[in-house]
Description:
By secondary structure, this protein is an alpha/beta fold. The chain contains eight helices and five strands. Helix 8 links the parallel strand 4 and strand 5. The longest helix has 15 residues, at about 70-85. It is globular and about 55 Å long. The model has no long low-confidence stretch (mean pLDDT about 90).
Amino acid sequence: MGLLADRLQRIGESATLRISAKAKQLKAEGIDVIDLSIGEPDFSTPENIKQAGKQAIDDNFTHYTANPGIPELKQAIIKKLRDVHGLDYNPNQIIVSTGAKNSIFNLCTAILNKGDEVIIPNPYWVSYPAIVNLAKGAPVYVHCSEENGFRLHPKDFAEAITPRTKALFLNNPCNPTGAAYTKDELKEIVDIAVSENIIIIADEIYEKLVYDGFKFYSVAAISPQAKDITVIINGVSKAKLRSCE
């Protein structure tokens, strides 16, 4: 009998960390390397955040919190979603975790039964299939062509749906391609998902990284029906956020 659970055989080493380790090795050898592996900003933690963390320790704000998150933080998230995207949520619809990856894992564990299919547009963030596999789901890959800007085409999405389809990963803007969707493009995808009752896992953690006047739209804001089937995944590790106050 092995010491480790069989589920660990369904995942491999993190490709992101493997590439990052290789980049660090090459840099240590004096080779000029541009590392595009780990998705972290090119700036350090802003000073006000560092000071707030230190102040929290001095104030003994270090005890256990409620599982869904600190109420004040949940209210700040609600305010951000309302002010930036026009979305209204209640505190019981917000869950704070230790990161976006943790949120995605918790979500997949909560919604997937063995064999449930999750559509993953390809190219994709490398952790999506591993998380689906750990939750005993089945990843279904849909190729996104360069001709279509690496965006999921509604026709390809519709053709990938089967009776076992439970969810769709919609990473907007996308890691690694940078592909972002217009409001009309999102609506086409939403219409299909709504008609088939498919959960949209909206990974929007790169929402601030859009350029050349492009306007980002949260898929949940497309329509009330879209909001009903969408779970937004977001975080604070990718960009400097402006205050919503």
